[in-house]
Each structure stands twice: as C-alpha cells, then as structure tokens.
Amino acid sequence: MDDAIREQLDAMKAEHRRLDEQIAALSAEPLLDQLEIARLKRRKLHLKDHIQLMLDRNTPDIIA
Q1: Where are the domains of the chain?
Q2: Which tens digits make up the pLDDT trace of 7-58?
Q3: What angle do CA 24, 18, 47 make, to 5 degrees?
Q4: N or C: where does the chain have the smaller number of CB atoms within 10 Å of the terminal CB?
Q5: Cβ neighbours of 38 (radius 10 Å)
Q6: Separation of CA 57 from chain center
Q7: Which positions ≥6 away from 13 have C-beta within 8 Å?
C-alpha cells in the first residue's frame, strides 16, 4: 500500500475515533443534543464506509 494512502487512512481512523469520543461526551450530558449526535454518527458512518472502500481498493483480488 502506498505511503500517502496509508497516511490518509490513518488520518481518517483518527477522525473516526475523535467522533466516537465526541458522541460519547455529548451522550453523557444532561441536555442531549440529538440533532448534533445524529450528525456526528452520520459523519462517523461515512468515514467508516470510506475507510473500508479504500482498504478494499488496495487489497489484491485473489482467485481461488
């Protein structure tokens, strides 16, 4: 895998973890901001899908 792609994946994984922490922090607050939590969850899911897509594109196909 190319170093640039690996760095991009690492950055996206770090952002995914940061979003998870933000969601947990917002969920712990007494006044929940459901709209913000939903927005963060959508962003987190989008990142997860994009990370998986990049991994799939860089995994060689093996014909069994």
Answers
A1: 3-57
A2: 999 999 999 999 999 999 999 998 889 999 999 999 999 999 999 999 998 8
A3: 105
A4: C
A5: 11
A6: 17
A7: 51
